[in-house]
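Whiteboard transcription, Tuesday session. T.W. wrote the structure tokens on the left side:
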């Protein structure tokens, strides 16, 4: 079977795209080269649009996407390492760095932890070793001692719900043991609104990239009202339920986060607008989201 994406050919959209919008799309693939290999899904998304205004909104949101390559992530990981050792002056003798992973399932924070461990290893002057890096968050209350520092590490802070829950849980466990431990938080990227609402129960935090909401922080006045209406209309094209998930829970992204974030080769967070990752569309027998998510 002919595979347009494999050959690099551009599939034909069912709907006519105005010339000015088409020009924007061409420029968009230059700015966001990760879209080139997703041409089919890209055009299917535009086929869902019923107006040029909706097409313009999708193009605007894709233009704002915060896309990180592996090289981009490594640079940010090195900045986190430098923050820990230079700005905070934390020492390996009394510091643990932990992923947010608490369940039995794969978690992106583990990948970031592993990358940070490699970053420390590449710096021969640092005495950090394997016991400093903890992959299971649940172990922390049992291995922390009075006067220790603990750094909670993640790749992306979306709604802030998980980090708030984890930090409060750990702080309570530490208090129950009568310990005084300094808690720090680090993340590669995070939503500006969520970070501003974090509880002041940790000593400090460091987020490399602060991200704004794709619609609510980018449009004003009548344009904001129209953009919100257009996205709601587009989301109505998606299936109301998929597997055990209800679209209602993820409208405008989980907790209405309105995130535009993607890390190359990783599972996109559910804080992204579902129009970019939801697995089925009610009006389509086949549907390929631009950023498939498990």
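and on the right, the sequence the group agreed on:
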């Amino acid at each position: 079977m002919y595979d347009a994406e494999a050959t690099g050919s551009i599939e034909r959209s069912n709907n006519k795209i105005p010339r000015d919008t088409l020009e924007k799309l061409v420029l968009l693939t230059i700015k966001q080269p990760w879209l080139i290999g997703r041409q089919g899904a890209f055009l299917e998304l535009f086929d869902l649009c019923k107006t040029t205004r909706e097409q313009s909104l999708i193009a605007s949101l894709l233009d704002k996407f915060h896309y990180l390559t592996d090289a981009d992530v490594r640079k940010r990981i090195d900045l986190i390492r430098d923050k820990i050792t230079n700005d905070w002056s934390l020492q390996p003798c009394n510091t643990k760095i932990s992923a947010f992973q608490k369940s039995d399932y794969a978690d992106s924070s583990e990948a970031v932890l592993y990358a940070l461990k490699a970053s420390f290893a590449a710096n021969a002057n640092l005495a950090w070793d394997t016991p400093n890096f903890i992959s299971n968050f649940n172990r922390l209350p049992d291995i922390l001692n009075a006067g220790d520092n603990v750094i909670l590490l993640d790749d992306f802070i979306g709604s802030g719900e998980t980090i708030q829950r984890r930090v409060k849980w750990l702080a309570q466990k530490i208090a129950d043991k009568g310990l005084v431990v300094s808690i720090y938080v680090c993340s590669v990227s995070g939503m500006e609104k969520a970070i501003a609402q974090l509880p002041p129960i940790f000593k400090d935090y460091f987020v490399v990239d602060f991200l704004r909401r794709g619609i609510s922080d980018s449009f004003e006045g009548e344009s904001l009202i129209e953009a919100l209406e257009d996205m709601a209309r587009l989301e109505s094209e998606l299936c109301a339920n998929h597997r055990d998930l209800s679209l209602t829970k993820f409208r405008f992204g989980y907790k209405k986060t309105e995130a535009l974030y993607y890390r190359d080769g990783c599972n996109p967070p559910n804080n992204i607008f579902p129009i970019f990752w939801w697995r089925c569309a009610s009006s389509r027998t086949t549907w390929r989201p631009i950023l498939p998510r498990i």
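Someone added at the bottom: Residues 1-10 have pLDDT under 50 and may be disordered.
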